[in-house]
TrEMBL record:
This is MIT domain-containing protein 1. It is found in: Endosome membrane; Late endosome membrane; Midbody. The gene is MITD1. The keyword Transmembrane helix does not apply. The keyword Endoplasmic reticulum does not apply. One of its GO terms (cellular component) is midbody. Homodimer. Interacts (via MIT domain) with CHMP1A, CHMP1B, CHMP2A and IST1.
Amino acid sequence: MAGSRLGQDPESTAAVTVLKRAVELDSESRYPQALVCYQEGIDLLLQVLKGTKDDTKKCSLRKKISDYMDRAENIKKYLDQEKEDGKYHKQIKIEENATGFSYESLFQEYLNETVTEVWIEDPYIRHTHQLYNFLRFCEMLVKNPCKVKIIHLLTSLDEGSGKEQQSNGLQEIKESLRSHGVLLELEYSSSIHDREIRFNNGWMIKIGRGLDYFKKPQSRFSLGYCDFDLRPCHETTVDIFHNKHTKKI
């Protein structure tokens, strides 16, 4: 469907590639990803349509665009209902050395003015870079549009030489959050293994590596040291839920 009777110009080729991927994702029930590809492919087809002079080709393109728009709209309605029913599931695969996955880029879609309380379960908030990761995550939470008042952290206690560093670091973060009107509640568990973040607006995010999915920067003065969107990542998977449930449309 995606490739039939389209030209070989760059715009047409790009449209075919993206829409073919959309159909593949659709057939695999990966609806959030399919919707993005459909929307991108439709935009590309519209550009092709603008540059087409032949009336027959225009008519064919309009039909294709209409069909893809209908499918995209059906998927959007389905996903909106899934969110409403609490049955939404989206998976993001972060490839090795991928960039563009700062906490803001990953979580901003799920943060709004209704978020007042956050729960974080992560066994590895111990070492200096992990404490900085947690601090950066907290910085994101205190910015608009969030109105976060309570952050709950469940982590494991460093029983080795880093115990004092962990304790002091978390205490400093707690005091800093308090100055911004946010309460940090700390709890330790020796049996915690899962990594999970929950917002009181219903969203739950599970990251395979927890908050510690960024690679060490090459140097203190390399790109990505400050801007985590430019920081290469370790390979990991992000699962976003309201409820662990998916079904065919």
